[in-house]
């Protein structure tokens, strides 16, 4: 028996974040600072202030969420300077929340002032230069967007291979789940696997992306982890369970974007906990859903009556599923062990 979980305990846990989209992790405040800078250089700029466009009272659903990136945030963060400013803030925010290991994911993109290659090289340099990299190690996953054509998907994989030795550990499939034909990405994921990159896929996010055919095709890409896993039929569930795939669960995102019905207590978290698959709590887009990773731990503890030991077990499961090497695993296992030894008994 240990003391109750509170915010301070959740913050101090040695947390591992495995499903965080870089652009979605930028806070409205940081975007506001970029906006202010841009506006002072170009007073005729018509883009709305992020503090208004992304105010806390905004409700996001699957229709409004994806255009927020393509039609708004990408407009604001389109230069190497704005990328550097925002990624530094994102790294600081995760570190301050007690994250000790981070796998950030991002979709390579270009603008008039940078190529996709420049975009990735800039991000990797910021990760290298992050002053707290011995406290929080960071790796990168490159995302294929469901709207990509096969050539674009292959370009993502080629960039991942090009920069693999600098800390790219995997390839992701993300984007609007109502769009695209995922079967066209077979070759790209095959090549990623061939080069030793790990694979994580957004999986069964909405009913439209959860047909047996689509889910079977996605599993044929031989993923190492799956994200969201909301609308999974029993037959596919059994396959996931047999393969012991790591499951990246994004509770606040699923509740707020209405990917599930109801609140945190209605989330499918508990149904996966019993399967033996590593379950990993993740933020998805903390800049939009405004819930840090430590808050996600706190929310599930409150909703499902979890103890301090249960949360430490969750940290352990996250370590099991990282794409980093065995040295990283050893470092993280030692931190989790220390947390277990230091958890406060009831006095
Ligand atoms: C419900 N949650 C989600 N489901 C699917 N894709 C998501 C997502 N949240 C974010 N993205 C994907 O990540 C991109 C933004 O980050 P990056 O520019 O890549 O760093 C979005 O454009 C979308 O494709």
Structural class: alpha/beta
Q: Kindly report the spatial arrangement of strands forming the biggest sheet.
A: 1-2-3-4-5-6-7-8
> What's the end-to-end separation, in Å?
10 Å
CATH-assigned fold name: TIM Barrel
Q: What is the number of helices?
A: 16
Compressed to H and E, one letter per element, the order equals: HEHHHHEHEHEHEHEHEHHEHHHH
The stretches of 5 or more residues where confidence is low (pLDDT under 50) are none
Number of strands: 8
Helix percentage range: 40-55%
Shape summary: globular
Determine the CATH superfamily: Metal-dependent hydrolases
How many domain regions? 1
Instruction: Give Rg in angstroms.
Output: 19 Å
Mean pLDDT across all amino acids:
96
Mind describing the biggest β-sheet? 8 strands, parallel
Query: What portion of residues belong to β-strands?
Result: 5-15%
Top CATH class: Alpha Beta
Overall CATH architecture: Alpha-Beta Barrel
> Which ions and ligands are bound to the chains?
N6-methyladenosine-5'-monophosphate
Keywords: Hydrolase, Metal-binding, Nucleotide metabolism, Zinc
Catalytic activity: N(6)-methyl-AMP + H2O + H(+) = IMP + methylamine
Domain Adenosine deaminase: 14-338
Protein name: Adenosine deaminase domain-containing protein
Describe the structure.
- The chain is of the alpha/beta class and 347 residues long.
- It has a single domain (7-342), classed as Metal-dependent hydrolases (TIM Barrel, Alpha-Beta Barrel), CATH 3.20.20.
- It contains 16 helices and eight strands.
- The protein has an eight-stranded parallel beta sheet.
- The longest helix is centred in the N-terminal third of the chain and has 17 residues, at 80-96.
- The radius of gyration is 19 Å and the shape is globular.
- The site of N6-methyladenosine-5'-monophosphate has 17 residues, from strand 3.
């Amino acid at each position: 028996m240990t003391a109750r979980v509170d915010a301070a305990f959740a913050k101090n846990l040695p947390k591992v974040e495995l499903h965080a989209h870089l652009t979605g992790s930028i806070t409205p405040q940081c975007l506001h600072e970029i906006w202010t800078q841009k506006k002072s250089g170009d007073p005729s700029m018509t883009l709305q202030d992020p503090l208004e466009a992304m105010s806390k009272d905004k409700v996001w659903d699957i229709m409004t969420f994806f255009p927020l990136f393509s039609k708004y945030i990408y407009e604001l963060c389109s230069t190497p300077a704005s990328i550097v400013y925002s990624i530094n803030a994102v790294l600081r925010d995760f570190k301050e929340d007690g994250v000790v290991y981070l796998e950030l994911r991002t979709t390579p993109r270009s603008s008039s002032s940078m190529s996709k290659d420049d975009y990735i090289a800039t991000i990797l340099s910021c990760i290298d230069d992050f002053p707290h990299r011995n406290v929080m190690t960071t790796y990168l996953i490159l995302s294929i967007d469901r709207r990509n054509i096969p050539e674009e998907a292959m370009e993502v994989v080629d960039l991942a291979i090009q920069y693999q030795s600098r800390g790219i550990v995997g390839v992701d499939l993300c984007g609007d789940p109502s769009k695209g034909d995922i079967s066209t990405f077979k070759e790209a994921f095959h090549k990623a696997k061939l080069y030793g990159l790990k694979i994580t896929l957004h999986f069964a996010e909405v009913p439209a992306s959860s047909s047996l055919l689509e889910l079977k095709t996605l599993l044929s890409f031989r993923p190492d982890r799956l994200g969201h896993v909301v609308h999974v039929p029993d037959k596919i569930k059994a396959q996931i369970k047999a393969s012991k795939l790591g499951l990246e669960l994004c509770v606040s995102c699923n509740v707020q974007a209405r990917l599930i019905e109801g609140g945190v207590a209605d989330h499918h978290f508990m149904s996966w906990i019993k399967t033996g698959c590593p379950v990993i709590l993740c933020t998805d887009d903390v800049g939009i859903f405004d819930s840090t990773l430590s808050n996600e731990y706190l929310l599930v503890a409150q909703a499902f009556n979890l103890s301090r030991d249960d949360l430490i077990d969750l940290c352990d499961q996250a370590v099991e599923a990282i794409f980093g090497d065995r040295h990283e695993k050893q470092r993280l296992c030692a931190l989790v062990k220390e947390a277990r030894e230091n958890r406060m008994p009831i006095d």
